Structure formats: structure tokens, C-alpha cells
Amino acid sequence: MGGAVGLDLELCGVVREVAAGEVVPKGSAPAVSRLRDSHHALARLLARGLNETEAAHITGYALSRISSLKRDPLFAELVEAYRYEHRDNARDLEALWLGIATDYGQHIHEALLDSPESVPVSVALDVFKAFADRAGMAPVTRSVNKNLNLNIGDRLDRARGARPPTIDHRDE
């Protein structure tokens, strides 16, 4: 089977044409001849933005091996494919949460308009606080620091000095 191994990245939109006369860099022999599950795990971590040290701790790869893999074109394509996949997943999740937030906000708004008495005041107040906070109208908290110097040492010295002297009643 000794052919070149490559990823079918047309599915991910990562393929580009090599222009006529463009020099394709040639390097040393590829670090990866066959992609294994451990390569995929490492590529996913790097695509998510972990640095090499963090990825090494998680996967057990040596830093030198990760560095070597990152220079391999096949592995670099794999990381890039996972990077696109991760962006798409994050975008989908963000859209889902935004949709839920919009629906719930609309539900609250309609309940307040249709029958304001059905919404307990405590719930309405909590909702108002949350939305006001997100709109930049968070409550302002102030703290006051007071330095109170009691001069306990000075007061103790004065009290000792004001005390009548003790008389020793021992027989002389």
C-alpha cells in the first residue's frame, strides 16, 4: 500500500490549489506515516488552543515529539481541520444559547405584558436585576474604610501613671 497518506480536507474547506510555478517546500521525511487515535487526540487539544506543555501532560507525548509532529504537513492539516471543526461547534453552541436566551426573554416579556399580576414581585425583581446588570446598570457598591487609632498603649501608660503607688505593708 505504500502511497502518500493525506487527509480529505475538501469536507472542511481547507484545500487550496497550488499555483503554477509555486514552490512547494520540501522537508525531511514526514513524522507521521499513519494517523492514530493519539495523533487525533493531540491535534484536537492543539486546535482548542492548548500549548505544547499542556498537551504533553494530557497525552503523554514528549515535547520534542509534539514539536516534530507540528512540523509534519499531514499533522498540521489535521490540526487545522480540528480548528475549523472547533470553531463551527463553538459557533453552533453560541447560536443555540443565544436562541434560548432570546426565547426566554420574549416569554418573560409577554408574561409581564399579558398578565403582570401572574409574575411574583420577587421573580420580576430578580429578572430586572439580571437584565439591568447585563445592560450596564449594575448596582454600585461602595466601601468606606475608617482608620481608628485608639492609642491603647498610651492610654495604658497614662492609667498606670495615674494609679496611686502601692504601699508595701511588710514588716521592716
User: In total, how many beta strands?
Assistant: 0
Q: What is the chain-wise order of helices and strands?
A: HHHHHH
Parts with pLDDT < 50 across at least 5 consecutive residues: 1-5
Note the main sheet: none
Oligomer category: single chain
Mean pLDDT: 79
In whole angstroms, the N-to-C terminal distance is 118 Å
Shape: flat
Q: Measured on Cα atoms, how large is the radius of gyration?
A: 35 Å
Helix content: 55-70%
Structural class call reads mainly alpha
Q: Number of DSSP helices?
A: 6
Q: Beta fraction of the residues?
A: under 5%
What does this structure look like?
There is one protein chain. It contains six helices and no strands. By secondary structure, the protein is mostly helical. It is flat, with a radius of gyration of 35 Å.
Task: Give a quick summary of the entry.
This protein is mostly helical and 172 residues long.
Throw out a few tags for this protein:
single chain, 172 residues, mainly alpha, 6 helices, flat
Outline the secondary-structure elements:
Layout: H1 37-47, H2 52-59, H3 63-71, H4 73-114, H5 121-134, H6 152-162
Helix pairs in contact: 1-2, 1-4
